[in-house]
């Protein structure tokens, strides 16, 4: 894999060359390298199975340039698998050929004034682990079988055929950038992630899912992930259905995560496009006073953490909701300069998805942190007393357009009925649809748990660090009658 030094040398030499080209007013060169190791678990009792498929890995690297020309046009170009003169030369030609005029673009990033810099700064390579960067196949395979072994431990007395699927991902990301305004940055990040779904086949099939993640290998508990996945599947036996109505509910961490990813759109780009429910609502009380949220790139061990943005700024924390009041939006350098009159905006979320050189910086979250409350998980159940526990949801979509807080989602597995302050039975998956309003649900917070956990949603890069959350009501519709 390409080293940080190789990336640094490439952007330094590339910037020097690009700045010498005709009609160039300012330029930026960004280089990155990514390595991904995937251990895919696929085990079944009713067909021949090894448990672990052939391990796979992929590596990519390259660079890109952003160029502002003297006539005001802005161009972007990238070159794959090249860090030399050919690479930045070809990238520049593409940027020159594709340049367009954007009257909202004012300049490439410059060093931030003290008032906008993050108060905390991550130690160098705080989110990188040599054990992941130098991971060999043998150790990666051991971790995968450790995860599968945890499931076997919990399933020692299972009476059904089993189908266990999941994967362990080990990722190394490196980047470097330099621009004409003196902004420079370089960083290495690592991630270890385990996710496992255990399915007990029958009529009906029942399943449980668990996960774990960390920036450091030794903190990844693969065996516990496997064990918890199987335990949750076993807990789904004897599931019951409920009828349509409004129910008090405890939202599990994955359910909170899915709702936040789907409906809590607070990027300034979405505000500019009128594609969020929160246009014109800064400074207004929208949620329960118990709700406090921030985007924090400096959380130790969280796989969304970064030391630097992909625009070269030291990463930091942006307060989004305080005591239920919407305080800020996420932004990058482009949008801060597009809306200069709003002084609260800061350019701390200018990232390229996957730290990939192939795109220019958009607005992306890092770790969306829901501040904990004072309840234990058991106390939240007692607080609800009679209602439902929603562990997992899927197919969460906006309803009535992106500018509305209305949503629909389907309750999946790991969900239960609550009676007299106790979990009484599992809730049959895929028999209930929640059709409600995001702001209404989170105005009715009854309490938040004191135990946070790093969680993530399928296909989403930012992570959510959240406790379980009890709410006054969710509107549930019974579906799939006659099927379960």
From TrEMBL:
The species this protein was found in: Candidatus Iainarchaeum sp
GO molecular function terms attached to this record: metallopeptidase activity
Protein's name in the database: TldD/PmbA family protein
Source taxon at top rank: Archaea
Residue span(s) of domain Metalloprotease TldD/E C-terminal: 244-476
PANTHER family referenced in this protein's UniProt entry, alphabetically: METALLOPROTEASE PMBA (PTHR43421)
GO CC field: cytosol
BP term (GO), one: proteolysis
Name of one Pfam family that matches: PmbA_TldD_3rd
């Amino acid at each position: 894999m390409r080293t940080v030094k190789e990336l640094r040398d490439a952007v330094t030499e590339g910037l020097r060359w690009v700045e010498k080209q005709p009609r160039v007013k300012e330029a930026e060169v960004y280089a990155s390298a990514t390595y991904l190791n995937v251990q895919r678990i696929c085990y079944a009792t009713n067909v021949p199975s090894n448990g672990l498929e052939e391990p796979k890995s992929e590596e990519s690297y390259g660079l890109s340039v952003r160029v502002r020309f003297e006539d005001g046009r802005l161009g972007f170009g990238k070159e794959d698998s090249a860090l030399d003169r050919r690479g930045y030369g070809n990238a520049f030609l593409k940027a020159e050929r594709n340049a367009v005029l954007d009257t909202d673009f004012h300049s490439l990033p410059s060093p931030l004034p003290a008032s906008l810099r993050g108060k905390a700064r991550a130690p160098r390579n705080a989110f990188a682990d040599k054990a992941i960067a130098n991971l060999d196949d043998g150790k990666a395979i051991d971790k995968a079988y450790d995860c599968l072994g945890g499931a076997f431990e919990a399933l020692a007395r299972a009476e059904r055929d089993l189908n266990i699927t999941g994967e362990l991902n080990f990722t190394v990301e490196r980047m470097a950038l330099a621009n004409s305004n003196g902004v420079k940055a370089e960083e290495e990040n690592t991630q270890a992630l385990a996710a496992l779904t255990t399915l007990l086949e029958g009529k009906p099939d029942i399943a449980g899912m668990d996960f774990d993640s960390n920036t450091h290998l030794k903190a990844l508990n693969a065996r516990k992930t496997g064990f918890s996945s199987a335990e949750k599947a076993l807990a789904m036996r004897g599931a019951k259905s409920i009828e349509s109505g409004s129910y008090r509910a405890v939202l599990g961490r994955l359910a909170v995560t899915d709702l936040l990813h789907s409906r809590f759109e607070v990027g300034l780009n979405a505000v500019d496009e009128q594609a969020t429910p929160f246009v014109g609502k800064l400074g207004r009380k929208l949620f329960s006073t118990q709700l406090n949220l921030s985007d924090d790139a400096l959380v130790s061990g969280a796989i969304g953490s970064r030391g630097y943005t992909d625009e070269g700024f030291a990463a930091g924390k942006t307060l989004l909701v305080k005591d239920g009041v919407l305080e800020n939006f996420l932004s990058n350098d482009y949008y801060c300069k597009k809306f200069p009159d709003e002084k609260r905006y800061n350019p701390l979320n200018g990232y390229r998805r996957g730290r990939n050189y192939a795109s220019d910086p958009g607005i992306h979250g890092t770790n969306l942190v829901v501040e904990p409350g004072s309840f234990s998980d058991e106390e939240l159940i007692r607080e609800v007393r009679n209602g439902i526990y929603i562990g997992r949801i899927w197919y969460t979509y906006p309803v009535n357009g992106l500018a509305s807080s209305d949503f629909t989602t389907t309750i999946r597995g790991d969900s239960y009925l609550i009676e007299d302050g106790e979990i009484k039975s599992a809730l049959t998956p895929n028999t209930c649809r929640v059709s409600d309003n995001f702001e209404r649900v989170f105005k009715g917070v009854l309490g938040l748990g004191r135990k946070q956990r790093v969680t993530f949603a399928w296909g989403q890069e930012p992570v959510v660090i959240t406790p379980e959350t009890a709410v006054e009501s969710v509107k549930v519709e019974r579906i799939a009658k006659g099927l379960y």
